[in-house]
Amino acid sequence: MQAKKFIPLLAFVVLAGLLFRGLSIDPSELPAARLGQPFPEFSQPELSTGREVSVEALAVRPALVNVWATWCYSCRVEHPYLIALAQQGVPIYGLNYKDDSAKAREWLTQLGDPYQLNIADVEGSVGLDLGVYGAPETYVLDADGVIAHRHVGVLSEEVFQRDFSPWFSLGASLSEIHGEVGVE
Predict the structure, then answer these.
(1) In 10 A of CB 134, how many CB atoms?
(2) Residue 174 to residue 157: CA distance in whole angstroms
(3) Domain assignment of residue 84, yes or no
(4) Average pLDDT of 21-27?
(5) In this predicted structure, what is the pLDDT of residue 180?
(6) Residues 80-110, buried b or exposed e (16+ Cβ, 10 A)?
(7) CA distances, 85 to each of 64, 99, 104, 154, 182 (Å)
(8) pLDDT in tens, 110-140
(9) In terms of residue numbers, what domain contains 62?
(10) Which CATH number covers residue 130?
């Protein structure tokens, strides 16, 4: 009978332990749901034109697919580096994730547009199929259209050189050409 009194306390301790463990997980270490698989099929409007696009529009490969949004402060931090990559010839497709399309178009007008096209994923369905945890996330789409790598967080020159350079050959480092644009 006395043991029954401790069941709520035991349940609380177990739940608190699980919550603490969940909060201590590094999002960059979470598994990529589609790694090694083709980019998911979709039919969504392109952000600037409104025309429907599908996975076939991601034809220039290898390429980066960058998940971004105007509500994402880290996306603003990495944006100058994405522009520098695009200027160096790295194809970048945008996935504007759970965002207001008018605000997103305004952002690109003000800050520059590094993207070859932008998928307007207002409801987040493409992101869900891709396994997106949040923004920013950047994926490598290899020459065969397979997701070869995923990075969660701000894309910087250090991260690009360490994790993305096998798919893209850039002559000099971007900081040598444009000054320091990446942030860790």
Answers:
(1) 15
(2) 7
(3) yes
(4) 48
(5) 45
(6) bbbbbbbebebbbbbbbbbbebeebbebbee
(7) 10, 23, 20, 14, 10
(8) 999 999 999 999 999 999 999 999 999 999 9
(9) 35-178
(10) 3.40.30.10
Q: Is residue 3 part of a domain?
A: no
Number of domains into which the chain is organized: 1
Which amino acid belongs to residue 76?
R
In a domain, 140, yes or no: yes
Residue 10: inside a domain: no
Residue carrying the six token digits 């100058």: 80
Nearest to 121 by CA among 61, 176, 52, 63: 52
C-alpha 113, offset from chain centre: 16
Which two tokens mark 59?
A: 């034809």
State the helix-helix crossing angle for 101-111 and 73-87, rounded to 10 degrees. 50
**Roughly how many angstroms between the first and final C-alpha of the chain, as a whole number?**
56
